[in-house]
Model the fold of this input.
Amino acid sequence: MKVIQSISEWKTIRPTLQGRVSLIPTMGFLHEGHLSLVRRARKESDVVIVWIFVNPKQFGPKEDFDKYPRNRERDLELLRPERVDYVFAPTVEEVYPPGFQTTVAVEMLSKPLEGALRPGHFSGVATVVAKMLCLTQPHTAYFGQKDGQQCLVVSRMVQDLGILTEIVVCPTVRDADGLALSSRNVYLNPEERAVAPLIYQALEKVRAAVADGEREAEPLRGMMRAVLARSPLLSLQYASIADAKTLEECTRLNGPAMASIAVRLGQTRLIDNVMLLAPSQGAH
Ligand code: AMP
Done:
């Protein structure tokens, strides 16, 4: 496993790579969710590249860029047994040198949900993902359904810009009590951690109601709000039932949809989602 920080060094390596190349973009502080993407990539490719970069452009001015958890040594220890070929971990100055002035914006899909609460977030994501896809030129890049809107934004960008990389979306990995794994879960104190599974319980309630035949979106949103209201520690930011392709809010479910939730729990912001009426996807 070779760790690379310098983009100029990387440029000498990329032309030597042979076979199917895969990329797993991450911000580090790795957990089993990230490792599930790495394992899938390892199975499906010859060269596996993990990108670790806490991207300042996707954090708002009042967000947690400075205190986002980082532990490079631990990340490398977790990746070694997974037989990763390259860990590409550039510095902020390498990725955004003086004079950098390009932004990639995916207009409509970036507006609702996370985009409404985190202005500029998805242009930060799209810009850095575009740069890493250009640098690594992977056949396949692996993303987690956990960040459902991000998957849509990145897929749209790749399609719109004619980038040849295939985007693969992998299922959300959860703790035994349903809480989606996230690097930010370390921020939770024990009391907050105890109520955090309500997020997945709210999503499961919606999934069960849809399986029982409910198709009206507003009652489904109401179910999520009711479950989340069980703890005063949870402050709801959105409980959405949106079209799975456009992210427009549904009035009635006529096809695949995404139920998604964002909450504040103390100082921590958590998001999660499940797909509805999308049997072939298998992502949960
Ligand atoms: P992050 O480091 O949080 O930017 O995540 C890097 C990649 O891992 C993104 O594609 C995430 O969607 C994915 N990911 C994060 N958490 C999970 C999880 N619990 N299950 C599956 N994928 C995840």
